[in-house]
Amino acid sequence: MKLLKLFYNSINIVTIIFFIISIYLIQQKDDFAIFLGYIGIVWWSLIISINIYKNYKNQ
Q1: Is the distance from CB of 29 to CB of 47 less than 8 angstroms?
Q2: Residue 50 has pLDDT above 80, yes or no
Q3: Phi/psi class of residue 11: alpha, beta or left (left: φ > 0; alpha: ψ in -120 to 50)?
Q4: Lower Cβ count inside 10 Å, N or C end of the chain?
């Protein structure tokens, strides 16, 4: 339960929106859009992971 609370406190609406945009870009036919989608997913996953780590260290 504590891990779920850490995850909930680490995400916000902007992160979710950009994560969804990245998933949408992966489904496109253009290679550049797919590349940007994968880069976006890696980037926003890293942001979420860093926020979880920061929240964990602050507790």
Answers
A1: no
A2: yes
A3: beta
A4: N
